[in-house]
User: What shape does this take?
Amino acid sequence: MLSKIGNVDRRIIYVLLCAVIAIALIKPVGLAIKVSAETKKVYDAIDRLPPGSIVWLGFEFDAGGIPELMPAARAIIRHGFQKDIRFVCGGMWTMAGDMATMAFDAVKKDFPDKQYGVDWVNIGYRPGNTIWLDQMIKDAAAASAGVDSYGNPLADLPLMQEFTGIKDAKMMIIFVTGTPGTPEYIKTVSTPYGIPLAVSTISVEVPGTMPYINSGQVLGGVLGMKGAAEYEVLVNKPGSAVAGMDAQSFAHALIILFIILGNIGYILEKKNSVAK
Amino acid sequence: MKKELPIALGLVAGLIWIITTYFTGPRWVETVHQELSKWYQLAGAYMVMVGVVNLTRVHGHRITQKKKDWMYSIVALVCMFGIMIFGIFIAKDSNNPGWKTFYSQIIAPMNATVYSTLVFYIASAAYRAFRIRNSQATILLVSALIMMLGRVPLGAMISPVIPQLADWILNVPNVAGMRGIQIGAAFGGIATALRVLVGIERGYMGGTE
Assistant: This one.
């Protein structure tokens, strides 16, 4: 009977997991979040930028990355606006423009003095992958057919008078879920032109991002939902990532519980087969 | 000549790209680089057309032959041609709200749904796969437990050592392994590129060698 715990129906696992995540999201307990060194490095880098600096935001993800990357994007934009940083954004992923719109729409209501075209510009998605990125370094207007994500001529936007290409950015922050992503920015922009690069990535991309942070090619990382929650804490505006950390904590605890049960069942089953 | 000409073209174009990427110098180097970038984008756009023809042939064949799950091929073709017709005849402007609807009401929710269901599969797979069958599986299991606890606030609540251990795993064994894989893949990429340039690798011409 005990050995059956090693073979629990997967539907039971699904239901329990769903219940744990839902309860933690509806009634968060507010577990303490400690800020990691990687997140602090990104925060400090933005903090050190002089007011008025232009930062490139690469929205290299689509809807699947929203739960982990959107809170990070919102917190970073909030931090930037607090420091009077201006943003130009775009990306190689088809939903880049929509993701940027979603992030800025959520933050702009708290900063009524910030205006589109003056404090931020959304170039949106453009095809061509690294070739587009390569063209964006020196001539953003030519690489983007002269219009932003909403069809406005770039020449009419005041911020674009100071931003002729990514080379004019003081820093780049990219939100990535895969390819094209971090390596493309390193080899095309940050290494050849010496523009500091920070990365916000989903959890599954963290192991692949660590070598770049260790080598200094990426100055820091807002890594997974954990990193997003840490950034929300740093800008003093807890949001969906902080709430999500409770859900993630309890979901991980449940999975660990099942792994332990599975191993107890496995050991018992092994003992039984030896006895027979 | 049928074989030699594409190889020669590939060699010349590849060498020009390598030279103009790795070396800066006279103005013409940058001009050539920019011009080749435009050619690449044009070739990419043309390849979409080739892709449409190929997809139509493959799925058309599946439908006419009534192969397994042929009805999904109908869905694929209807979606592909539906969006093409919509773009060519109805929403000619890229700012048409119809495109926004396509993305925000259809693609985005489907994308998010597929991604979010992964958590259930991963949970079930972890339960079945992480068994102490031998010493290697045990190391994997212990690492997974440390990482799962160390990357959430619950781990620090249990013991401050757990996040430190998770950071060590991420920064030392993981970086060593990932760096090896990445450098290996880069060398593999260079070797493959050289094979294509000198005409040893001819897959792009439809051959196998």
The mean pLDDT of chain B is 88. Chain B touches chain A through 51 residues (CB under 8 Å). The helical segments of chain B are 4-22, 27-64, 70-90, 97-129, 135-150, 153-158, 161-171, 173-197. Residues 27-64 of chain B form the longest helix (38 residues).
